[in-house]
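Field reference: sequence -> structure
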Amino acid sequence: MKMTVEEAKTRVVDAMRPRNPCGPALMRVMWEAYGLKNEDFLWAGSAVRGGIARQQQASCGAITIGSILLGLKNCQPLKNKEKAEKAQKAVLEDAAELVKSFIQKFRALRCIDLVGVDFNDEKAMKQVTDALFEQKCQKQAQFVIEKLYELDEKRRSKGQT
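Structure field:
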């Protein structure tokens, strides 16, 4: 990793101010932390905000991006079928652990259930304070970062990365 977990958590909060979406912010920070070079990966997370494209019936953007990042971090050439299958299995296991732990901590997965505000309702959004984003969205993004670092450490300790 190119930065500590605490640096990544601080950077994602900074990237989310003022009221920037968790998905692209998390993608950018972890793209840097993982030392990924391909800027196209950053575009992969562009629509992951407010669930997906502010349609909050989808999963939280942080959990969606976290799952995508697991694939990017652990990808293997498809030509090597055995390595690719092993990596895909590891990504699936880690993504399942990420989602289960997220639900256990926050008691929901869908964006609307987590924040309780319709991002497409202008009237409701005018009533929302920055505290909502600090207490909910930023905390969820930081949790995903912690879990990604934890999963990475677990794989490294087993000699799997």
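Note: The helical segments are 5-15, 22-34, 40-44, 61-74, 81-106, 111-115, 122-127, 130-157.
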